[in-house]
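re: ur question from the group chat, yeah i did fold both. here u go
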Amino acid sequence: MAALNKEYNIVIKLYTIAKDFDLPVEPEEYALYQTLSPSFQHLKTVILYAEAKKEDNIRKFSHSLDRLIREIKLNIGTMKNRVSDPMLLS
């Protein structure tokens, strides 16, 4: 996140310099620049939310994985019993 903040600040400084020295900026570029701040703030919010939910999501995934492993073991045991059926072996 620190690297993104650094890059964001560099872009802001460059556009500030361009404005201070009346350097020409294409309208399309300036329009993109104007969307940068809201987009960057949204990105930071999404990253913070994802980091906050990370542990909960790992816990949910682990629980689901444990449940699926138990189901697979049960299915394996059931199949093993079917294959070992004396009627099938004769």
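okk and heres the other one u asked abt
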Amino acid sequence: MEPPDITVDGTGLLCVTLLLRLRARIADAAPGTIVHVIATDPAAPLDLPAWCHMTGHAYLGEVRGGDRPVYALRIAADARTTRPDAPLAPRRELTRRRPRACPMGQCGPRGVWCWGHLLGAPPAVAGGAPRGLC
């Protein structure tokens, strides 16, 4: 794995706060910049790849060998922006209206999509989505 150009220390931060800090730190970063995110949030292995998928940045995976969990990503040249107050919500003017339910028909009502299905993961259980994803 390449050495980082930017390191974001998100120790003790949970999902939204971690992503807000990450977004602020990479705001002026050049495309191709390697970013390491130190994240102790147990949901980070799901949240970071989902955020990268949504914004267009390349998720490079977990960096092994340290005493704290570290995840790597590469800044994209054509990244999509999210709302300033909600890093997991795409800007309305940049996205089309999404359907009222998960495209796999197994997530919550009123357009609430789970991360697993946003990333294209198939359901692990026949006839229903795995618990924790929806």
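fwiw on the second one: DSSP finds three helices and six strands in the chain. Residues 96-134 form one domain. idk if thats what u expected
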